[in-house]
Amino acid sequence: MKTRILENFTVVFAWLAGLVLLSGVSLLLGYLFFKGHASLNLSLIFGDTPPLQALLLKQRVFEGLFPAVAGTFVLVVLSIAWAIPFGIATGIYLAEYAGPRVKRVLDALFDVLSGMPSIVIGLFGFSFAVFLHKHYSDRIGPCLLISSIALSFLVLPYIIRTTQAALEGIPLNIRLTALALGATRLQNIFLVLIPRSVSGIMSGIILAIGRCAEDTAVIMLTGAVASAGLPRSLFSQYEALPFFIYYISSQYADSEELMQGYGASIVLLFLCALLFVTAYGIRKGLSHFVFYRP
Amino acid sequence: MKKIGELVAERTFLLSALASSSITVAILAFMVFMGLPLMKQAGFYQLLVKPWAPYQGSFGIYPMIVGTGCISFLSLVVAFPLSLGCSFLIATIAPKPVSKGLRRLIELMTGIPTVIYGFVGIFLLVPYIRELFRSGSGLCVLTAALVLGIMITPTMTLFFCDSFDRIPRSYLTAAEALGASRTQKLLYVILPCAKKGMLNGVILALGRAVGDTLVALMLAGNSVRVPGSVLEPARTLTAHIALVIAADYESPEFRSIFACGVVLYLFTMMVTFLVRYLSFAEGRRD
Amino acid sequence: MTEAIKIKVTDLSFSYRDRPILKNVNVDFAENSITALTGPSGVGKSTFLMTLNRLWENLPDADMTGTVEIKLQGRFRNVYAPTMSVTELRKMVAMVFQAPNPLPMSIRKNIAFPLKLAGEGNREFMAHKVEHALRMANLWDEVKGRLNDDARTLSGGQQQRLCIARALVLEPEVLLLDEPTSSLDQTSIAVIEELLLGLKDRLTILLVSHYLEQVSRISDTIVTFDDNTIIS
Amino acid sequence: MTEAIKIKVTDLSFSYRDRPILKNVNVDFAENSITALTGPSGVGKSTFLMTLNRLWENLPDADMTGTVEIKLQGRFRNVYAPTMSVTELRKMVAMVFQAPNPLPMSIRKNIAFPLKLAGEGNREFMAHKVEHALRMANLWDEVKGRLNDDARTLSGGQQQRLCIARALVLEPEVLLLDEPTSSLDQTSIAVIEELLLGLKDRLTILLVSHYLEQVSRISDTIVTFDDNTIIS
Amino acid sequence: LPAFSGSLDSFQGEKGELKISGGTAHIPVMKEAARRIMMANPEIQISIAGGGSGVGIKQVGEGLVDIGNSGRKATDEEIGRYQLKLFQWAIDGVGPVVNPENPVKALTKDQMKDIFAGKVNNWKMLGGEDREINIYTRDEASGTRAVFWKKGLDKGAITSFAHVVVSNGAMKSAIAQDPYGIGYVSVGHIDTTVAPVALDGVVPTIETVQDGAYKIARGLYSNTRGEPVGLTKKFIDFLYSPDGKKIIESKGFIPVR
Ligand SMILES: Nc1ncnc2c1ncn2[C@@H]1O[C@H](COP(=O)(O)OP(=O)(O)OP(=O)(O)O)[C@@H](O)[C@H]1O
Ligand SMILES: Nc1ncnc2c1ncn2[C@@H]1O[C@H](COP(=O)(O)OP(=O)(O)OP(=O)(O)O)[C@@H](O)[C@H]1O
Ligand SMILES: [Mg+2]
Ligand SMILES: [Mg+2]
Hints:
A: mainly alpha; 2 domains; 12 helices; 75% helix; globular; E: two-stranded parallel sheet; 9 helices
């Protein structure tokens, strides 16, 4: 009898938990859309500036999200550009070259890196910038370059892990095919193994993009500012969407600005969801081990 | 000719692996290096147990450690039952289509940006908590923990589901053939077998809760005091870094955030090695 | 057949993802006898067994039509009737698999597991049942001293007898065995065959086996599967 | 044996993670003949083939001792000598696996792949070689109209012949085949057997096979593996 | 004082980047001025970050930014160390604020000191609702905090119970959200979403600050390292121009004469 009660309780409990989580999240999203849908229009992004003029960089946007969106875009492109070559090369090294001992050590290091709180990486980036400023060049301070490098540290483990997993998942017979035909190790990697892992690596890259677009803690320490206009150079400060949302949430001046915050949240949410679904579509059953990120 | 190409490539891969992995080491080195003057002066241990009162010259991060502990523990208290329940639903209890849909949805939820949780939390949950308990400002440990709990639930649920999936099919078939209902299968076979994997999920989720900055910064109130109840404000290590980074670079305030960095770093390392150890133990058992 | 009929299968068809496995199978099985099912690999023998206790319902993309009636507690019942509880059915129509599949718990708990599922709480009664089942499976003497050891530490033959004991503990009316001896050595096979012969007057046994010798040694009837249908 | 020796294996031992698979194998293989390797499953036949072209070196935890000498370009060479380039070796000692493994590219590109690896750039020459290899493998007539189709759209037998053609395109001196017909139907098997017989005067062929009929049909010599060693 | 060379015309032909950080009270003025300048001359890029007065002084001193704003006068030590040039372009007050729903709209200075010290912790004790007082303060880098602490609380204690927010804007939105909160903001930031609290009978407004009735006042400074040149100089000049003064006024501060 006691067991029956336990079993029934389990069922009720499970449904209840599902309900709570779903209602929690739908409340979150519902509230966001309820509050923010009214602000979703072109002037949210471009303010009073004609969109075309803004996109062609002919005219500046002051009241809209355009500089923040552009800043996020540039930031993501830069970070990914740093992370991809290192990430893929390291993934290849781990999967194809590293001996078991080396691999154990490197694996542990990347595990630690992938579990690192992003604020710690931000702090590292910030103090590194200050360090460079003091000892190297007056021109360097917290800026786009530093932010993108710090962000690339943040997402490097994603790309390493997906590359490594994709390569290691290739069955032995395929691995041996080209080798038996006289391929060198490098030929095998680039002509057979990498082409077969493209989807895995791509999904890792897209996740990394999502991560870069979403992160706030790193950029608030390394160069994102309240107002900067479009980023001009690697050494300039910039605006970014997630930082904008954070900024608005704590210091909106009036309800209009607050509405912008809701709008920005919805835009960011859509952006991330889109990236996420794309990554998922590219590679179904993508492990969330890769998603994990404090 | 070709040999050289091979060698160059291998060296390149090796170098980039070394460069990438040196980041992990470099971060620790930097934290220690920057925090060293203060740690030397006050002693690392002293920093860990003293309060934060910059005007009295005390730069301890004890309140932040306690704040971090409270908020992340409480968020686990929120997230654990939710994740357990949701993973039960997905594993056996819900009908196939529902369970599939739920799983997709939860996977998608892991992609919601953190700042959005914080943003909605401020305007939705904070006033609600304030009026519900008629005490405090609503910016408190409880609010932060609730939002954080919801935030880490998807990750934890997926880890649970994962450890359920790893149970050998034969165990499940055995139970089914003996007339176990879905719930019984879950309670008497799946759950006992998946314990270790689930512990992994909990530890990783804890790591995530401790490492999160935005939710605590936006919702916990950031007061530099050991919270006396869940309705009082508190500051986490991560939020402390974000707040004090503005201070004078040479000041002990600024140095103290590197102590926070070191603590967070060591915690991450602990989580990582614990998880690795557990996975290793699990791998060996099979 | 002169004996009473225990299981009546009518017009049974089965497919995996629209690939037909069994087509219009009609067959009866006699009570208190051992029926051997043979046939080439992949013809659908294991699948057929699973249609009798509805175990296939947990497989993805599987589909079945037709009726299966089994005389349970004295009267014929359609096992696919909505009133039939699938967990009750599986307690009365027990199954043992090709590869022994002890659960990752002690020997005692393995045997007691079906009792626990049935909601039994009386420990003394359970201990008694466990002993009885182990005795029936000729395993008691070998394991009585180590009932708390993990069941996975037993040898293959012992594990298979454990699984049979576990299937017997609820006193089922039908016992389905899917190549229960294929992973065992000669001695273990002999022990299990003897065990089955001894169980025959209490149960109806359906046994899938590839070993023609074995089949002729212990079975009363032979049913051969061939290319989606049955030749008796 | 009266024919010239092509491959000389001396004191070969092999282990996976300290589990010995082959122990002190000594065997020679004659030139321009088909030698069949048989023996129970898991005894190390595939592993043995991989010691001849050093393919095992890509497996984790594998270890080997002993010498293998092959007469390449007219003189005996130790394939494990430091001066021996492993890629050159594999071009001269080609291998075909049990399951056909076309690369995910067009038929033409599959065949041309080893040429590409060897650094060949002349397109006309390559086209000519491709045709030649496909003709040798009795596949040309079947695929000449669809050289740009994905190789994975071919039937199993065609895929296996494609793999043989791909192995032949570099004009190797030794061809290792690991159960090349086990996943094929009777007609395909006959075609491939005929093909191998036709290749025999140009190549030394080593063929792993379980099918005794096949073995007796086409092989000149039979080497049987048994429990870590070889009985010829 | 620098010459009033200019309106926006003076930016003609300039280009390059100007980095500003520091005091958060300054931000609305900075943003508006930057917007005007950048509109007039698209070649100029001005970035504005907060951080607080301490950050402003420090960053300009270290050369990380071109202009570091502060809501307090830089100390002599800071001036000496970094060769700072101080430009005070407005007068501002720091006023205690509560939520408009809060009936308590006047306090004595002692009451306020007690509140911030945590001794008075319920609005009931001040004639309000029976609810705890939620105290909001600023982080340690804040000039607003420094001024309020010195002149408003006479360097009295601020309880560690207090919530910490990172900017004037954040303070305002926190109080606007919390009916039981009390905090302090730059007078320029006070609008209808928060209610100023009269201190010893004087309501903090521009007027009372200007005529000296309200005592917790301060200057808003823009600091440069060494004598400003080029774009930096023109920006500061602009703050002193008639257009600049209008902006300062419109944002609720009193431009210096
Ligand atoms: N879960 C499944 N999904 C899809 N097809 C399946 C599944 N299980 C079995 N099959 C297919 O159904 C056919 C019958 O399988 P079944 O296991 O019943 O054969 P069997 O007669 O028991 O063979 P064996 O003697 O090898 O055990 C086989 O072709 C098999 O490939
Ligand atoms: N990569 C590997 N790592 C470890 N052990 C292996 C590996 N490959 C094969 N083995 C083991 O080595 C032994 C010999 O394998 P091998 O594949 O050479 O056998 P085989 O004679 O070709 O058998 P079959 O006829 O089944 O193909 C087997 O016991 C196998 O389990
Ligand atoms: Mg079967
Ligand atoms: Mg083999």
